[in-house]
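Bit of a strange request maybe. I'm writing a small parser for structure token strings and I need a real example to test against, not something I typed by hand. Could someone generate the tokens for this chain?
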Amino acid sequence: MKVGTKLTIGFIVIVLLIWAVVFVARNTYTETQEEVEALKADIVPGAVAMAEMEGKAYEIKAWTLLYMIRGNVVRKGKPVKEWLQQTTESLERLTREHKERAAVVVPQEAEIAEALETKARQLSSVTREIVNLKDRGVELDELLKRGEEAFGPIFSPLVEQIEEHKTSHMAALAKSVDTVREAHSSSMQFLFLVAGLVTLAAIGIRFLGVRRWITEPLSALHRGTEIIGQGNLDY
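Reply from user aminoacidic:
Good idea to test on real output. This should exercise your parser:
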């Protein structure tokens, strides 16, 4: 085999290894990018929304109980009734936005999101009813009874569904993070492996290839020239 052919093959091997690195890096980037887009589009916003919904639901319960007991007292610079209105509107807004996002990003969650919105509206309705009863002078015992009969059957399923939905989002978040970490780890291992192979190939071509394909033939040619120059034409 000619020296030029041998050198060409050696450099082709190095180039192929380099392109293997590029291919793996591209695939890893694509996979990581897809996971990151999923995190940005649904998983993280969904988990945050569930946490906010849960917090607003418990706030509504606390403000409603306070209103039943103390009436429209001022807390944190606002009357309790104003806090109740603000919190119920926030919960309805959160569930509505979640439903709209689910319809576009994750259609399989649309039914769950719609159920959450319905329960949020029901909770707001019951809260307004209890406030009206308090404003009409209904006694505390009757208010507490009404709250247990009407508020509880809506509040508990709403919180349970939010908690379940939040758990699924957190599990999806953990899975996506693990996928990104595994892809990064695998790609780094492969890159180090190929980098080692490229290094060995380069060393082999530099020392072994050059010696066998260039240095030794030139040395043999030089020795032959000296021998012939001394008159040994048979050589």
